Amino acid sequence: MDPRDAYHLGSVPIGLAVAGLFVIVMARSHATYWAGRGVVRGARAVDEQERAPGWWHASVRRLEAWTGTSSAQRGLDLVRRWGPVAVTLAYLTVGVQTAVFAASGLLKMPYLRFTLASIPGALVWAVVWATIGFGAVWGALTLLARSPWALAAAVLVVVVVVGWAVRRRRVRRAAEPVPASIAE
Prior knowledge:
Elements: H1 14-48, H2 54-66, H3 70-82, H4 84-90, H5 97-106, H6 111-146, H7 148-175, H8 180-183
């Protein structure tokens, strides 16, 4: 049996799968960067015009509210602290990718710097998904077809472990002392 069949790639060369996924993830991340870069500025400019329709003003308020969410703030903080390194590592995360890419645009990270930081992250992301990522998805679908209860049990275990880890992190953060400069 061809090992590629385990990932349901069949006759698709792995290089082609990686290249296709690379292009897809670069397009997504760069679209998010440019949305962060341009949407707020353009939205505010239109919002200041008297001719803007009422729904536009509401959309601008929602966009501004999003920048205040914990996910957006986490992305902004990561980009402020780590810069391009945050962009590269964001490709390996779940849950903060979009926030980091949008934050890079909101903070006006130079586009060349964003692009250079994106290339290694997108390449690693594409390799992971072209190999073990698709394998995990197809494995879950195969398990679902054979035993929906086994898949439900596996998902439950993952949810419990992730929930435990998140709760543990929150408890640890709550127990950390507040720095003197913030407490004053």
